[in-house]
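Handout, section 4.2: multi-component inputs.
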Amino acid sequence: MRRAGPLPWLKPGVFVGALVPLAAILFRAWRGELGANPIAQALNQLGLIALVFLVAALACTPLKAFFGWTWPIRLRRMLGLFGFFYALLHVSTYAALDQVLDWHAIWEDVTKRKFIFVGFTAFVLLVPLAATSTRGALKRLGYARWKRLHRLAYVTPVLGVMHFTWRVKKDMTEPAAYALVLGALLLVRVVIYLRARTSAPLQPE
Amino acid sequence: MGRLAKDPPASEITPEGLYMRRREFMRNAVLFTATSAGVGGSLLWLMRGGRAEPRPSERAGGTDASEQQLTIARYGSYTTDELLTPYRDITSYNNFYEFGTDKSDPAEQAHALRLRPWTVRIEGEVHRPQIVDMDQLLGWVPLEERIYRMRCVEAWSMVIPWVGFRLGDLLQRVEPTSRAKYVAFTTLLDAEQMPEQRRHLLDWPYVEGLRIDEAMHPLTILAVGLYGKVLPSQNGAPLRLVVPWKYGFKGIKSIVKIHLTEEQPPTTWNLAVPHEYGFYANVNPAVDHPRWSQATERRIGEFRRRPTLPFNGYAEQVAELYAGMDLRRFF
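Output:
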């Protein structure tokens, strides 16, 4: 019999919770409760949830550093993959429902509008991360190369926050909140990195 | 008779290991449920922009006043055969930042607005300046229905059956002087009634303006109603401007002052983001917003985007107002 690891409820619990926004959007769409402009509403909410997951995935290491918790690290891959999943739904909603696969208009948007350009870039960068998220991919790439590639996980939420900021008409409260959290999480990493460097034992020449 | 079954046979006793696993299973089931509910609930909260669910009483939208029918003297002077946007959408999807930046905020918050008594000051370059009570003002002008397209600068649109009167008729009554080149409008400034005015998101009060020839144009109206009924607060009650060939933000709501001037007046969105919102703000598919295209729009209730028309389809009536003007420069 397979022995369950510690906290066997954690991953399934987060997994089901992570699907709640999608279920809520589908349910509201079906009931006609997404408001007068349902496509815009679904588009905005899917994008926001994608950003939440990408930022949440960056919170795992700081939580370990500050509180010594190791359980968030076990969630990191799943959080990142949910970020990609919601980003994929967000981009698909934009292309298929908002622009009705008008490739000319989509190309114009991506190349002409900087907020769509950075958002699209973030999505493109997420693709290799999602594709190499398996243990097998890690082995094939080798840990060093895999780790270097997955540093992109720091870039994508930054682009996501820029995308959010540039699309808002005037009220910056929400993008600013995400920028603040993201900034704090990245700062923690800089501190961890500097500490590791200064406290590392001197290497013999 | 055998002896009483005092103890269950040994074979029926749950083995201790299994009993403990059952307890563990129950514990894990509870923790699983709590985790998924916690994660799901937090995400739903973030989806609403980190705000509580509106109370059911605030959700309905519309105030008691909006049930009042208006007496309409004239129909069909300007109309369209396009499908009307449902009342529910017109009254629940609003930009009225004095009540919040979310589209659903005005319908939830605008009940705080006290619609009576309401006075409007008409002043500046006029021979007969007035401070007029709203009900008195309504006695001056016969109401008519105008079915107009409304194109928001955010690239969505509606078709709205307004009830109102020509702004030009009101202005003629107060006799503009020869120096009256522009008309400036001001929204109520009162954070008690308009709670979001406490946040300095925009420079309150909201101000807008028109050139005098735009203001006198027969298409330009002051609206007091919607779908034959008194205008709901979230749509700018009791008195709002409607200029159908301009982007929606020109349609200033809950007006308390009309000031005729010689100089071009400041306008709120232009002050806030000058390179994105101009004084003229004529609907123009050829001039993009710096951050998004204005070539197409989504009509509320429709699936596919539709092309945006120059001057929102009113070019025939208003294009001559701008003859010789570079509309890329004067956007």
